[in-house]
Every structure is written in C-alpha cells, then in structure tokens.
Amino acid sequence: MRTTRLVGLLLVAAGAVGCADGGSSPSQPSPGDGVTPSAAGGPAPFQARPVLAVQGRDLDGAGLEPGLVRRLETLDCLRKAPTANAPTAEAMLACDTRGAGFLLGPAGVDGGVQRAEVVEVRGGYAVQVGLDQASADALGDLVGGLVGSEGRFAVVVDGTVVDLPRAADGVGAVLQVGGGWSRAEADDVAARLT
C-alpha cells in the first residue's frame, strides 16, 4: 500500500467569499507541474487556482497583462458572471456569490473530487471535499507556493469562486470550504462537486 503523502496543509476557510477577506477573481494561466487534468477532457466542475488580482483594488505595479486588467476592471458580476471553469492552462475571470470579481491564474487542480460531504461547523455548514492522491499532491504544490506570502487561492465550482482558503499547518487530501453557509447552500455546492 502506498503511503499517503501528507501535504502539510489544512485548508480551512472562515466563511463565504467576499472582497473583504482578500479574495480575488480567477484567471487562466498556462499549465504547470502538478496540474491534474479532468477525466472528461474539459474543465472539471472543481478547480483550485491562485488569485492574481481582485476587482476594485489598486492594480498598478502588479505586473499583470494590461488586457487582463482591463477585462477584470470591466467585469460585471451582477449582470453577467462567468458560469463555467476555464481550461486549466488559461487565466480566468470569476465572480464570487457576493458579486466580487477576481482574476485567477492557471488551475493547480482540475477535478479529482472523490467525495463531498456537508458538515455542520460553528456558524453554519461547510463542505468537506475529499481529493484523490494526484489532486491532493497538486493542491499541496499549489498551496505550498503560497505559504508565508499574502497569496491566496480560490476554490472554483462551475465558474464561481465559492471560497478563498488560507494555508495553515495540518494534513492534506481533505479540503474544507465554506463555514458560514446555510444547509441549502452547502448541499448545493456538494451536489455540484459529486
């Protein structure tokens, strides 16, 4: 039996995503090492992507491609939010459930969900997402590059940023998203993941 590699990270989000907690919109960068491809050939419903920029924040000197910055600045999440994940190798614009816009980098994880279970937590409900070994390793690589920095990553489900977890010490392979959701909100996210 192969020993499961601990990625050294427990990823826990405090609640729903919003600009106030530092989230940003998804973007689509080029594929990198550790990207787990979707079995269906297209983008999976679940992706983990680094946050490159947040709409409405000062983007001068951020070193981002001007065309992507313009697209982020004009993104209207309340009228026409993206509804699908982008290919893993591309940057992507995404919105959270509160209407905040984000520019996200290439997907570090695309699919690999083995189970999604709704759990009751302090302040509401969350979803515990169990990942296969390849996706857990890829998530560890993605988040490992963010530890000790201001960088965050986005959990994207069907084109929507559902959470912006922070990296902390702990164990990998299970990712908890949400935390302040109603039971119906958590059930919806879990259903879309399985």
UniProtKB/TrEMBL annotation:
Source species, domain of life: Bacteria
Region forming the signal peptide: 1-19
Region (Disordered): 20-43
Entry keyword set: Signal
Compositionally biased tracts (Low complexity): 20-34
PROSITE patterns assigned to the protein according to its UniProt record, in alphabetical order: PROKAR_LIPOPROTEIN (PS51257)
The protein, known as: Uncharacterized protein
Organism phylogeny: Bacteria, Bacillati, Actinomycetota, Actinomycetes, Propionibacteriales
